[in-house]
TrEMBL record:
<feature type="transmembrane region" description="Helical">
    <location>
        <begin position="251"/>
        <end position="276"/>
    </location>
</feature>
<feature type="domain" description="SLC26A/SulP transporter">
    <location>
        <begin position="27"/>
        <end position="386"/>
    </location>
</feature>
<dbReference type="GO" id="GO:0008270">
    <property type="term" value="F:zinc ion binding"/>
</dbReference>
<feature type="binding site">
    <location>
        <position position="668"/>
    </location>
    <ligand>
        <name>Zn(2+)</name>
    </ligand>
</feature>
<feature type="region of interest" description="Disordered">
    <location>
        <begin position="779"/>
        <end position="799"/>
    </location>
</feature>
<dbReference type="InterPro" id="IPR001765">
    <property type="entry name" value="Carbonic_anhydrase"/>
</dbReference>
<dbReference type="GO" id="GO:0016020">
    <property type="term" value="C:membrane"/>
</dbReference>
<feature type="transmembrane region" description="Helical">
    <location>
        <begin position="30"/>
        <end position="50"/>
    </location>
</feature>
<feature type="transmembrane region" description="Helical">
    <location>
        <begin position="57"/>
        <end position="77"/>
    </location>
</feature>
<feature type="binding site">
    <location>
        <position position="671"/>
    </location>
    <ligand>
        <name>Zn(2+)</name>
    </ligand>
</feature>
<keyword id="KW-0456">Lyase</keyword>
<dbReference type="InterPro" id="IPR036874">
    <property type="entry name" value="Carbonic_anhydrase_sf"/>
</dbReference>
<comment type="similarity">
    <text>Belongs to the beta-class carbonic anhydrase family.</text>
</comment>
<feature type="transmembrane region" description="Helical">
    <location>
        <begin position="206"/>
        <end position="231"/>
    </location>
</feature>
<feature type="binding site">
    <location>
        <position position="609"/>
    </location>
    <ligand>
        <name>Zn(2+)</name>
    </ligand>
</feature>
<feature type="transmembrane region" description="Helical">
    <location>
        <begin position="131"/>
        <end position="153"/>
    </location>
</feature>
<protein>
    <recommendedName>
        <fullName>carbonic anhydrase</fullName>
        <ecNumber>4.2.1.1</ecNumber>
    </recommendedName>
</protein>
Length: 799
């Protein structure tokens, strides 16, 4: 069965809109509901068996989950019912309190879920570590498999996981008979059916595998009259409906059961709803409403003698794949379960127990997801997953979850307060022209990553003690936190090592280190030093020169003065920047550049000034391959009578070869070129000849160009007004270019004007005849960009 288009329908309002939506979507929802119903019936029966509950309880829960939770929940596509994730909990409750009290616990858990939803704690449940949730489900799956394998092999499951493991070898040796063949045949069908070749007709491949396996093997058992144990209902569904029994003892245990069912059912439902949203783009679940719907379903299910319900990812994903578009498909699936339970329940009693056991073994194995293991291993959370599984399987579910949560919190705490400290000995040949300050014995390298606090000081002391006296040392501080104890220890070691004849270079990559600590305490009450800035945003002077000022000789030998500037033979800022790039950025950017090796497809032609303070990729949060950048003095586009081939060539190449969709002109505040234009620089110089391309801008500014007038009313100075008018004029020039005019008329290209205010680091966008802030919320609102503290109010007399 093919799925409809991926985008969900637009909801209509009012009764008429609801009827219209129903008519439009029923052709999708009706067949989807039938498919989900066929999947739900065998799964509900199998889960009832695994829960040690009456089989009718599974059908009641499936009907209530579909109708009540489907109608009231916050997800339009999620399908609810009895879930494998609660089987171990319910089985324990039934064994401890009996079925009647277990139903009362289900009612109380449902009421608690309604409270969860009304108090808007839905998203809080998502704060639980996925490693714990997946570990809990995997532990439940392992428990189901260990128990039901005995039934598949013709025996009976034992009392606990230990007993099941110990008895399994003997059960394997004695496995024989028709029950074993039926159970193994079910598992084989479930594994093979999804892998059928495409040559098989689609209508045949569309039959749900659980339904096919249960029906086919039941027919085989009936035709051949196999001597196997079959399902015993003990009456019809209506006879099974009974009020729950209130507990009279062990109220503490009952309360724990209520909390456990409510919390686990809520988490599983919310995670399933989030997963369903990812399957259908545009779908968005109201998580608090979903908790209310789940709570209402559990309350009614418990009152009618049904199992606890949750949102079930198997049924929900089936609903999406089958084409369900609204909550009608989930509700109808519940209606079909009711019809089946009342009219066709006799057929259920023909199903062999070994067939349901085989179905449960398959369900249990699916809960152990290898993909989740790989993902958790990549994030270093596999130990939490494993510990949770072991706790659930060999102790109990609640203990296993609590142990998993405890370990997850400990691992988070370790990551927060634990620093990685690595000491690298000098390598052979670790000297060279770029490191002339290093001694003959080479350089020791210390890398500190993470949060360096007092807990790490003992390890830091041991690592630093490995470095011999008099050695050259480079310390990389990749730290985002440095407390006072670690700061003192590292500073004292640095002083001692220098007094012993060694050199120390502190290279700070993180947001907090020795230099940052010293700078933060060096200023007085009015000090306005900026906070730590990542190196890809900060100038060389921030992360290179401050080492020279702070560490003196530790920064390197061979400093000298030239033209009033301090230099180092071995610490040239360009070479140092290149080394930094290769050390920290080259490996990160290489995959993107590899994809671009065969060509480029930039998103914009970006014309801006040569001013070193304007960094296009930083200002636009772009990377390699995004901008086709052109820079010149004053961001001019001389394409008319004073045409410049360098600008024209890049423009034509961008339009004809690269097919860029956007042409950008970006000016900036305090522009030296605009200052020169205002002073009328002589035309007998290269700069004067070039700036003739800005004469039109000056003339239109003097003639009260609207852009300039709006800038004036916003408090901008003359230079910045002219710079803004210049952006508008250059855009006009581009628009008159034949190739650009044609592309704009055809809708292939748009023109964008930008203005960067350097003192505030804010970008403004040309919107009509004024520049507005580029924050996004004011674009098109007609607001003029204001400059509270204009830096340049008039053209200076000299540059």
């Amino acid at each position: 069965m093919s799925a409809p288009p991926s985008s969900p329908p637009t909801p209509a309002s009012g009764l008429a809109g609801a009827l219209t939506s129903l008519r439009e979507n029923i052709r999708y929802d009706l067949p989807a509901s039938l498919v989900v119903f066929l999947v739900a019936v065998p799964l509900s029966l199998g889960i009832a068996v695994a829960s040690d509950a009456p089989l009718t309880a599974g059908l009641i829960a499936a009907a209530v989950g579909g109708i009540v939770a489907g109608a009231l929940g916050g997800s339009a596509l999620q399908v609810s019912g009895p879930a494998a994730g609660l089987t171990v909990i319910v089985a324990d409750l039934v064994n401890r309190f009996g079925w009647g009290v277990t139903c009362a616990i289900t009612v109380a858990a449902g009421l608690l879920q309604i409270v969860f939803g009304l108090t808007r704690v839905g998203r809080a449940a998502l704060a639980i570590s996925p490693a714990v949730v997946h570990g809990m489900l995997a532990g439940i799956g392992v428990t189901i498999v260990l128990g039901q394998l005995h039934v598949v092999l013709g025996g009976e499951q034992q009392g606990d996981a230990f007993a099941n493991v110990i008895a399994l070898p003997g059960q394997l040796l004695s496995a024989s008979g028709p029950a074993t063949l039926l159970g193994l045949a079910v598992i084989a069908v479930l594994l093979a059916w999804p892998k059928l070749p495409k040559a098989v007709p689609s209508w045949l491949r569309g039959i749900p595998a659980p339904l096919l396996a249960v029906v086919a093997l039941t027919v085989v058992a009936s035709v051949f009259a196999l001597p196997v144990v079959r399902v015993e209902i003990g009456g019809d569904v209506l006879d099974a409906i009974a009020l729950p029994i209130l507990p009279t003892s062990d109220l503490g245990g009952v309360l724990v059961g209520v909390l456990t069912v409510a919390i686990i059912a809520s988490i599983e439902s919310l995670l399933s709803a989030v997963a369903v949203d990812r399957m259908r783009p545009g779908s968005q679940t109201n998580l608090d409403r979903e908790l209310v719907g789940q709570g209402a379903g559990n309350t009614l299910s418990g009152l009618l003698g049904g199992l606890p319900i949750t949102g079930v990812i198997v049924r929900s994903s089936t609903n999406v794949a089958a084409g369900g578009r609204t909550r009608v498909s989930a509700i109808l699936h519940g209606v079909w379960v009711v019809v089946f339970s009342v009219a066709l329940l006799g057929l259920v009693q023909q199903i062999p127990m070994a067939v349901l056991a085989g179905l449960l073994v398959h369900i249990g194995t699916k809960l152990v997801n290898v993909g989740h293991m790989r993902e958790l291993h990549r994030h270093g959370e596999l130990p939490v997953y494993v510990v949770t599984i072991l706790g659930v399987v060999f102790i109990d579910l609640l203990t296993g979850v609590l142990v998993g949560l405890g370990l997850a919190l400990l691992m988070v705490l370790r990551r927060v307060v634990w620093a990685s400290i690595e000491v690298q000995e000098p390598r052979p040949g670790d000297t060279g022209p770029s490191s002339s300050w290093r001694k003959e014995g080479g350089t020791w390298h210390v890398v500190v990553e993470g949060a360096l606090c007092f807990l790490s000081v003992p390890r830091l002391s041991r690592r630093l003690a490995q470095i011999p006296e008099g050695a050259d040392v480079v310390v990389d501080l990749v730290t985002d936190y440095l407390d006072h104890a670690a700061y003192d220890h590292l500073s004292e070691w640095e002083d001692r090592h220098r007094l012993a004849g060694g050199t120390v270079r502190i290279d700070e990559v993180g947001t907090m280190g020795l230099v940052a600590r010293r700078e933060s305490t060096a200023g007085g009450p009015g000090d306005r030093r900026p906070g730590p800035v990542p190196r890809f945003l900060s100038p060389w002077s921030v992360w290179q020169a401050r080492h020279d000022a702070t560490y003196g000789e530790g920064w390197g030998h061979g400093h000298h003065e030239h033209d009033g500037h301090a230099h180092s033979d071995d610490a040239d800022p360009i070479l140092t920047g290149l080394r930094e790039y290769h050390r920290r950025a080259a490996g990160l950017v290489a995959p993107y550049l590899s994809d671009l090796a065969d060509g480029q497809a930039p998103h914009a032609w970006f014309l801006t000034c040569s001013d070193s303070r304007v960094v296009p990729n930083v200002l636009t949060s772009s990377g390699p391959g995004d901008l086709f950048t052109v820079r010149n003095v004053g961001n001019l586009a001389p394409l008319g009578t004073e045409a410049d081939d360098s600008v024209g060539a890049t423009l034509e190449y961008a339009l004809d070869a690269l097919h860029v969709p956007t042409l950008v002109v970006c000016g900036h505040s305090g522009c030296g070129a605009m200052q020169a234009v205002g002073r009328d620089v002589p035309g007998d110089t290269a700069l004067g000849r070039w700036l003739t391309g800005a004469k039109e801008s000056k003339a239109r500014w003097a003639a009260k160009h609207p852009v300039g007038e709006h800038a004036r009313s916003g408090g901008w100075g003359d230079v910045d007004q002219l710079a803004m008018v210049n952006v508008a004029v250059q855009l006009d020039r581009l628009a008159r270019h034949p190739g650009v005019a044609t592309a704009v008329a055809e809708g292939r290209v748009r023109l964008v004007g930008l203005f960067f205010d350097i003192p505030t680091a804010r970008m403004h966008v040309l919107d009509g005849d004024r520049f507005v802030p580029a924050s996004g919320d004011r674009l098109g609102a007609g607001a003029t960009a204001t400059r509270p503290e204009p830096a340049t109010t008039a053209f200076p007399a000299s540059g």
